[in-house]
Amino acid sequence: MEVLRPTLIAIEGRIYRKNPIREQAYQDEDDDEDFSADLAECADEPCDDFTVRQTEKGYECTLAIPSKLFKFIIGKKSETKRKIESETRTSISIPKPGLEGEIVITGQQRNGVISARTRIEVIADTFRKREPFTHFLSFALNHPEIQQRFHQFKEEVLEKCSKDRGVDSSIFQNSAKLHLTIGTLILLNEQEVQRACELLQRCKEDFIDKYVGGNSLKLEVAGIEYMNDDPAMVDVLYAKVRLKDASEKLQLIADLLMERFVSSGLMLREWDRVKLHATIMNTLFRRDPNAEEMRNTSTPGRPGQRARESFDARNVLKMFTNFNFGELDLKAVHISERFSVDGSGYYTSAGQISFN
Fold first, then answer.
1. Cα–Cα distance measured from residue 136 to residue 334, given in angstroms and rounded to the nearest whole number
2. Which residue did the predictor score with more confidence, 32 or 351?
3. CB hemisphere CA count around 138 (13 angstroms)
């Protein structure tokens, strides 16, 4: 254990030190997992950034956690909950399964209530990160011109490269869902969706309006690239996205959006900077045409995961490396819902802000 450089966890704007825990393998995420064995090793440093109310019987505080995470706080046969209560000398009231509501912590000692809350937050944060993402921040690129050029690209690739290993129509993106992903979100109830919408609106007021000045951004989608070391073993091909004026506005906006949402706890950091590209070919589509790339949100070695089937992209890259997919006026940022579709064929929007 590195005593001087422990792992730090950011939860709702507060920073906690987390000691190493013994990882447990959970065969089924719907089981009542037991987290109690690791509680003694979780950080429980007092923090006064939330309200602890004094009552006639002692102290009380509440915290809002999605009901989907309650089972991890309760634990198998309620062992996790009982262990927290015993070690912090508190009482923890959790809403019934399936019901949203606040967890209420009461106790005779203020520090005990704070410690119990911190432990619950660490557990919730740990298991939240194991949930698949539900939404993502996106720039929609499904302009008619872009879609038309994409179909041309697909036809020409299939005509010239269909004999290359793994290249077939099943791995191409749906043209109506062409987009640039800013980051993935784990929103586990309606309250968190609303929180994300409010945060996006604040981003518009705080910095987006400053950079766009009430105008749309003129984008160019041109060129393709891959991200692994071997072009003969590619999982995903991307189209490059950039502003026509060659400025850094789009990158700045995307990076600031990512930073704000990561700081809020709703988004996991995947890169130091947002990658300005759009998926055009992905081997995940071979198994499921409605799939979205999981990025770094999946748990390595999780049961049920299968190795991806790559394709040989050498000829595609050689013949189409500078392919021009066209231009569009970017007018909005969307909170897109995973595995959904709206009337235009794009992802259903749980919220959005307009540039003009």
1. 8
2. 351
3. 25
pLDDT at 298: 39
**41 CB contacts (<8 Å, ≥6 apart)?**
19, 20, 21, 22
Integer Cα distance of 220 and 314 in angstroms: 24
Per-residue pLDDT tens for 34-74?
A: 555 455 444 444 444 568 998 888 999 999 999 999 999 99
10 Å CB burial of residue 190 (0-12, 13-18, 19+) is exposed
- Cα-Cα-Cα-Cα torsion 346, 347, 353, 355, nearest 10 degrees, comes to -30
**Other beta carbons within 10 Å of 54:** 9
d(C-alpha 319, C-alpha 156), whole Å: 10
pTM: 0.81
Nearest 10 degrees: Cα torsion 212, 346, 341, 308: -110
Are 306 and 288 within 8 A, CB to CB? no
Nearest to 122 by CA among 28, 228, 235, 45: 45
The tens digit of pLDDT for each residue in 123-172 reads: 999 999 999 999 999 999 999 999 999 999 999 999 999 999 999 999 99
Q: Which among 149, 74, 153, 61 has a CA at the least distance from the CA of 109? A: 61
d(CA 346, CA 340): 8
Using alpha carbons only, give the angle 310, 327, 270 rounded to the nearest 5 degrees.
45
pLDDT at 32 over 80: no
* DSSP-based helix, strand, coil % in the chain, nearest 5: 35, 25, 40
Instruction: Report the 10 Å Cβ neighbour count for 215.
Output: 11
Three-state DSSP class for 10? Answer: strand
What's residue 290's pLDDT? 66
Residue 298 CA to residue 285 CA, distance in Å, equals 17
**In the chain, what percentage of residues exceed pLDDT 70?**
81
CA distance 151 to 246: 26
Alpha helices in 49-172 (DSSP H): 70-74, 79-88, 110-128, 144-161
